Every structure is written in structure tokens, then in C-alpha cells.
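#help-structures

NK: newbie question. if I give both the sequence and a SMILES, will the prediction place the ligand too? trying with fe (ii) ion
OV: yes, paste both and it writes out the complex. here, I ran yours:
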Amino acid sequence: MQKGVMRPGHVQIRVLDMETAVAHYRDRLGLIHTHTDSQGRNYFKGWTEIDAFSVVLREADEPGMDFMALKVLDAATLAARKQDLIDYGCQVETIPAGELDGCGERVRFDSPTGHWFELFAEKEQTGKWGVGDRNPDAWPEDLKGMKATRFDHCLLYGDDIDGTVDLLSSVLGFQLAEQVRDEEADLRVAAFLTVSMKAHDVAFVRHEEKGKFHHASFYLSSWEDVLRAADLISMHDIALDIGPTRHGLTHGQTIYFFDPSGNRNEVFSGGDYTYPDHPVVTWDASQLGKAIFYHDRQLNERFLGVVT
Ligand SMILES: [Fe+2]
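OV: that's the protein plus ligand as C-alpha cells.
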């Protein structure tokens, strides 16, 4: 937080068919569908989120992630970090306020792994859906599907993960919470970064191609809800990747599946926390199976290789 970056703010995901995608994110994940903009993009939020939206779907010819955005404290922080990104050598572009409905000016920048990120300071705040912020009830009664509470993090695949870790750490104040290292090759294989107490706000896995999207993840309230998500995946014949299981990395309880366009989704609960004085947690690459799937202790080729 010392650089004024608070948290993930939104992710824009490309989908092949908007109608089936909206049904998936609204009725299966249980995100709140807030509206459709003049470009035909659809906006969603988890019911506990304060801001007006956190997921934007854009119809395109191939799936994947357009960008992931991080919310900063205020306009002065946005201007300061924009200059820092320029000084660091990033390609930086300013997207005017209102290009995404309800969102202020965004500062878009590239990264050594080929992913596009954004910073923004202002977004319309619509409050926790169905309960508000005055004497709020525990939860709204009419949630759908998996009842996703919030957009939590993305896992991204790319080549120069050390470069992106350096950029996000030195310019934006991210902390390396966990990593996978191959000591024989003296190589960092995966990096889990946080700007908060969460185990990760964004994570990276080393991969030969740039700019790949592994998953967007949504937080559920309990392990019981992860099991319930697994039931819903069967009830609706949603393509399953793996789970329900537990990660060694971050120790979250998790299940992975695919949206109708082939983008991977995760819903999870629990997991570790990170304070600024915590040492980096390191998993050895020789233990990668257990690090990723703590129970099976074996890698699944689809999990490693299928990205959009
Ligand atoms: Fe994840």
C-alpha cells in the first residue's frame, strides 16, 4: 500500500458469444449483472463489492483478458504512478473518464509478460448489492448460482515473470507473498503478489508465450460454498478443470471450470494472509504437484497448458 495501490478493481474478459457468457457469469457464478454499455459490453459485480462493477465482458473473435485494473487511493496517486510508469519505461496510455461507464480516467500500461494493466482512482460506488451500508443484513436472499462475493485476483501466464514482478513491486508497491522456485535452474517458476492482506491480488506463472490469461478468480464465503459450486457445475454440465480441492500455494480451497468461451474461472474460499513483514513463502519446483493441488499432489496437464 505504500504506493497507494489498494486492490484489484476490474478485469475485462473477451468472450465469443455474449448471450451465453452473460448467462454463465450471472446465473452460474452468481455475479450481479449491472448493465450493458453502448459498445455492447456487459458489466458485473460481486454482491459484496462497493464499486459499480468489477467484471466487463467484451465480445470478440478469441477469448482471453484485455486488461486487469487496480484501484488507487486518489487522483494525485494516479498522476504520480502514471509518471513513475513512464519513467520505468512502460508504454502508457490514458483512457478518458467514461470510456467504461461509471469509471474515471484510467492509466493503461504494458508489462514484461505482455499483459495490459490499468490504474484508476474513481469509480461510481453503488454499495453492497441488496444490503447497502446502513444496518446491512448478512446477505441478500435472491443471489443466483455460486453466489460469488467478489472478483478476487487473476492468474496470468507469460515469459518474463521476473520483469513483471519487478515492475509491480518497485513501481506499484506489490509484495511477493509466495513463489515457486526451481533451484537447479535458478529460476522463479511462479510468483504470487499482493498489495493487501490477501495471499495474492495477482499471480504469474512462467510460460513461453506472452500475455496469456489463466483464470479470473472469485471469492466464496465458505468451503461449503465451494462444494455447492461443484454441484452446480455438474447440474449445468459446465466444463470442469479440477476440484474441489485445496492449493498448497496460498492454501485456498478451490474449484476450476471454464466459461462457454473457454476462459478459465476459479471460485475459492479461505487461504492465507500476508502482512508486510512476512517472509516470502517458497515452494520448490520439485513439489509443484503438491503446491498446486495439495491433495492429488499431481499436476493436471490441462491446468498447466490451457490458457486463453
Ligand atoms: Fe487463483
